[in-house]
Write a structure and sequence with these properties.
α4 (149-162) packs parallel to α6 (199-215) and α9 (260-277) runs parallel beside α10. The protein has a 7-stranded mixed sheet with strand order 3-2-7-16-17-18-19, covered by helices on one side. Strands 11-12-13-14-15 form a 5-stranded parallel sheet. The protein is built from 15 helices and 19 strands. Helices cover 33% and strands 20% of the residues.
Length: 508
């Protein structure tokens, strides 16, 4: 078997023909190109490969004019937050595959939920890797959150030993819980006695990230810090006001209790801290509406020395407080009124959003709502799944507004892969991993939770009509989705993004 790529390769493991090939780097979609796959990578992208492929007896797949997208890089998921990680790894990676995703980046932290453990990451993270190994149908990597002072000291070790190059701060955890007000954050976060999870800690995390960028200069552009930007004090005050007034219920009440300017204020604080600490690689997560985006763009103008990335979720682009299946649409930051949804689309089309994610957090119905008071928004848990609708949702709603397929691919694949150092992902060019999703743009379907392999059993998108459905997916050249159904045993791999990964330059 040949071991090189590009023109002249005549033998392949698989050839996909008759696809419309989406090429985000070239900002176009090409017809008439065959995709030749060898040893898990794209070995050739040119017309006329089928004849030699058939002559050699290799597999040929007729894409029947479907769109061939690079497999999505779902850069924001929460596998293991509500169900055991080893269980989520199986069911929720199946949901990812159904949605055209071939790589997930999962947020993980110490404290309650996830593994329900505190302590050092040197002991915690190997358990995470063990629980994922051999269970995921898609490739995976992790973002980690430094929750205590000692975690900051572990950042260089996490980069070099485990290949973790992206980290996170939850700005509202200082005096607010995952689902609402919280009286004891130390117990919730499992942090050492006397430590506080506050603005000072956030500053010191940023200084730790900045030092790691200096220590690993060849990785500096991808050693980044993601920020969940909401302000605990504003949310606590507004939650009290909304509850006492009693005029709003459901998702409208929850949105008002975590008002949009809380996000804007947190974005502003985070941005100045990034400027102060010379930590320039900042990702502003799940911006939920007009005010959050306004603050993010203002800060980009104010601090051109900070290389911001702006993220939006498919949930905030598809659903609003009136369409999201009631309390089952509770999420942080909240879903907003329809005018915020449309404002986000304006920013997407203007090129001011860098990537779109699912923020997938599978929470089964019996855990999501209170058994005694199932309609009480304050008692419901935050978060829901949605990775299975990532590509079809963005394609459906985006293209009707003028977003090109190449634009869809940049938002779902190319941009997050580049920022987070996922070598070989996010592209269909020669040499890339053969992570390919075939989407049929002629299929219109209605979202039904019953059709999803996720363990969640409900969706805030129930009844939404989407045009464009993922039909077939390959991960590194191996099929994982056939006619909309997951096939084969899990063979997803951990993606080491550190200095010792295959093909990386050694540390300076």
């Amino acid at each position: 078997m040949f071991r090189w790529y590009g023109p002249g390769v005549t033998q392949f493991d698989l050839v996909i023909t008759n696809a419309q090939v989406v090429r985000p780097e070239l900002d176009r979609t090409d017809r008439g190109l065959d995709i030749g796959i060898l040893d898990g990578r794209i070995a050739a992208l040119e017309a006329g490969l089928v004849a030699s492929a058939r002559a050699e007896g290799c597999e040929v797949v007729d894409a029947a004019d479907m769109l061939a997208f690079p497999g999505s890089v779902d850069a924001h998921t929460h596998m293991g937050i509500y169900q055991p990680l080893q269980d989520d790894a199986v069911t929720e990676s199946r949901a990812a595959a159904v949605g055209g995703t071939t790589t997930v980046l999962n947020y993980m932290r110490t404290g309650q939920y996830y593994l329900n453990q505190g302590g050092p990451y040197e002991q915690f993270f190997p358990q995470v890797l063990d629980l994922m190994e051999g269970r995921s149908h898609v490739d995976y990597a992790f973002h980690l959150a430094p929750m205590q002072a000692s975690h900051i000291d572990e950042i260089p070790m996490l980069v070099e030993r485990f290949g973790v190059t992206s980290f996170k701060i939850f700005m509202f955890y200082g005096s607010h819980g995952l689902h609402g007000r919280s009286a004891d954050q130390s117990e919730f976060l499992m942090t050492p006695p006397g430590e506080r999870y506050d603005y000072a800690h956030f500053e010191f995390v940023m200084r730790g990230i900045a030092r790691a960028r200096e220590q690993f200069p060849e990785l500096a552009d991808q050693i980044s810090l993601s920020m969940h930007c909401e302000t605990a004090e504003i949310m606590a005050a507004y939650t009290k006001l909304v509850e006492e007034a009693g005029e709003l219920t459901g998702l409208a009440a929850y949105s008002a209790s975590r008002p949009p300017h809380s996000e804007g204020l947190a974005v502003t604080i985070a941005s100045y801290l990034a400027h102060e600490t010379e930590c320039p690689t900042i990702n502003l997560l799940h911006l939920s509406g007009a005010k959050a985006m306004d603050a993010a763009l203002r800060m980009a103008r104010a601090f051109p020395n900070v290389n911001f990335r702006r993220e939006v979720t498919i949930g905030h682009l598809l659903a609003d407080i009136d369409t999201a299946n009631g309390v089952y649409g509770k999420v942080n930051p909240p879903l907003r009124p329809r005018q915020d949804v449309e404002a986000l689309w304006v920013h997407v089309l203007a090129g001011e959003v860098d990537w779109v994610v699912s923020d997938h957090a599978c929470c089964q119905a019996e855990h999501k709502v209170s058994a005694e008071h199932p309609e009480d928004i304050w008692l419901a848990k935050s978060g829901f799944g949605g990775t299975e609708y990532l590509l079809s949702g963005l394609f459906s709603e985006g293209t009707k507004r003028g977003l090109s397929p190449a634009g869809v691919a940049r938002l779902l694949s190319t941009n997050p892969a580049a920022r987070y150092g996922l070598t070989g992902k996010g592209s269909l060019e020669v040499g890339s991993d053969a992570d390919i999703a075939l989407l049929d743009p002629t299929i219109t379907y209605v979202v039904r939770a019953a059709d999803s392999p996720s363990a969640q059993e409900y969706t805030p998108f129930e009844g939404h009509e989407l045009t464009g459905q993922v039909r077939h997916v390959w991960l590194r050249g191996q099929r994982i989705l056939r006619d909309g159904s997951v096939v084969g045993e899990p063979h997803g791999r951990y993606q080491d993004r550190g200095p010792n990964r295959a093909g990386a330059r050694p540390p300076a």
